[in-house]
Amino acid sequence: MSEEKIQQHNMAPAQPEEQEIDLIELAQKVWAERKLIFKACGIAVIVALVVAFSIPKEYATSVTLAPETGGKSTSGSMGALAAMAGISLGSSSGEDALSPELYPDIVSSTPFLTSLFDVRVKNEEAEIDTTLYAYLKDYQRAPWWSMVVSAPFKAIGWFASLFRDEEEGGETRLDPFHLTQDEAAIADALSSKLAVSVDKKTGVTTLTVTMQDPLISASLTDTVMRSLQSYITDYRTNKARHDLAFTEKLYEEAKENYTEAQEKYASYVDVNQGIIKQSYKVEQERLQNEMNLAYQVYTQVSQQLQMARAKVQEITPVYTVVQPATVPLRASKPNKVMILVGFVFLAAVGCVGWILFVKDFIKSWKTPKADSPVGGEV
């Protein structure tokens, strides 16, 4: 048994050497076909340059927003002022129910995207001055191969349109609930050009807009930022604004009632001056009490109106623009270096795989086996 163990121990170190020999043989096999690899890489460089320069340039503009921290309450000076007026405002922390994590969903929603269709855009050369919808539909450049691929589908669509009934002329109103095929396609294209990221720890929001023109990219970024701020503000102040509108209605009614009671009292006193009858005094006291009651209601509603206005102002979110929109100087896409490296890498890997595996497999498949029977011999 000891001799067998010694033999096994002596034979074990030979395995790494065999593996090393195999690697050397593979390297030699690849090196022998180096001309093929160099040719493939040269062709890949040419193809990569054609592809890189065929893709239209795109410019990205980013803005960074630092939103106001949530969880505010109406305590402090606002709470004291409300208590003096006899009004309880409660806590406004529930107003901040819209989480920043929902901002990407808001920007990619159909109503938000369609609200941007009528935004006016203009390029640096002033050659384009139209709506965003028309710009995305008529002024987008595309690689030559996309036009080649889409040509058959366009021809089929044109041929099918010959058999359709022509629609009546006139402008159709945009309906976000029921979009046409063109409107849905433009909305999807616009959604792919808008990106929103939110830092969960700090709440900082970064909005990025990518367009084929640098000026349009910067101006649209500013527009989208303001639209997003307006949407969030409307959402958070919705209930408070409804309460304010209701309080304003009550204020107008109370003011009208007080003015009417005041006029009635003044008119009665003017007409009945010098009369000492008790019935006139009773009527005067009644009109005076109605006027005082209307004044009290008017004063209380006036205080509530001021507090409702203050509440709307208080819960309105405030955003600090950390990084404003600026016109980009360099294109963000396409990355020509990465395209070149990727094509060369794929060409080199493909050639190595062909040399090491596919080529030998094809040779062994074409070459008949030596032990196969020839003719009818057994």
Write the layout of secondary structure elements.
Blueprint: H1 2-11, H2 14-32, H3 34-54, E1 59-67, H4 77-84, H5 103-107, H6 110-114, E2 120-122, E3 129-131, H7 132-138, H8 144-161, H9 181-192, E4 194-198, E5 205-211, H10 214-236, H11 238-271, H12 278-315, E6 319-323, H13 336-366
Antiparallel strand pairs: 1-5, 1-6, 2-3, 4-5
Helix pairs in contact: 3-13, 11-12
Question: Which descriptors would you attach to this protein?
Answer:
378 residues, alpha+beta, Bacterial polysaccharide co-polymerase-like, 4-stranded antiparallel β-sheet, two-stranded antiparallel ribbon, 8% strand, disordered C terminus
Question: Can you tell me the CATH topology of the largest domain?
Answer: Bacterial polysaccharide co-polymerase-like
Let me know the average pLDDT: 80
Number of strands: 6
Superfamily (CATH H level) name of the largest domain = FepE-like
In the sheet with the most strands, the strands line up as 4-5-1-6
What is the alpha-carbon Rg in Å? 39 Å
Oligomer: single chain
How many domains in all?
A: 3
Q: What share of the residues does DSSP label as strand, in percent?
A: 5-15%
Query: SSE order in H/E notation?
Result: HHHEHHHEEHHHEEHHHEH
Helical percent range? Answer: 55-70%
| CATH domain class name of the largest domain | Alpha Beta
| N→C terminal distance | 46 Å
What is the CATH architecture annotation of the largest domain?
A: 2-Layer Sandwich
Which regions are unreliable across 5 or more consecutive residues at pLDDT < 50? 71-78, 83-95, 374-378
Main structural class: alpha+beta
Total number of helices: 13
Q: In one word, what is the shape?
A: elongated
> Could you describe the largest sheet, including whether it forms a barrel?
4 strands, antiparallel
